[in-house]
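REVIEWER CHECKLIST
Item 1: Sequence provided? yes
Item 2: Single chain? yes
Item 3: Sequence as submitted:
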Amino acid sequence: MAITIGLVEDHSEFRKSLEYLISSFSDYNVAWSYASVEEALENYVETDVILLDINLPGLSGIDAIPLFKKKCPTQKIIMLTILEDDNHIMEAIRNGADGYILKKSSPNKILEAIQQVHNGEAALTPMVARQVMAFLKPAPAQTASPSLLTLREREILTLIAQGMTNEVIAETLFISVQTVRNHIKNIYDKLQVHSRAQVVVKAFRDKLI
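Item 4: Structure as written out by the authors:
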């Protein structure tokens, strides 16, 4: 079944080129495409992945993340940007973004990012997570203790931070994929996060792994 994509990009030429690129492959389908967050929210239909520009007229892409997540908590969102700005990465992750790619990325990289996020892979490598950590200012009251998680949950958290998919984690630990999903849901609830990107950053920041 094709991965459905939503696009929010104000530059019409780039938006159309993305539409053409994605639609050129049978494994992907552009469900909708808008020039602003306001228009996208008004006509929102859940998709597998949203490609969301950061700098938009009206509401910014970063501010729009929680609004899309409110409509659908499981909605996957990849941020599109011209520059790899640490502050933008930080804000996007804190707001719940699942991925972050540059507009100048090759077509293959863009499709690869869509596939990775759709598969539930970690949007950040451990190296990038450590870089982002430097910009996060953890509040002592919100710092998670390793004892908050069970041994199995810490084990799964470590594998998530290594970029493993749910399927690979299940094979590694000799458990079912559904059991992995249940553990991840518990991890998210305990750490009060909503995406793999957020959980990787919090794991390193609070020394949970």
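Item 5: Key structural point noted by reviewer: The longest strand covers residues 28-34.
Item 6: Recommendation: ____
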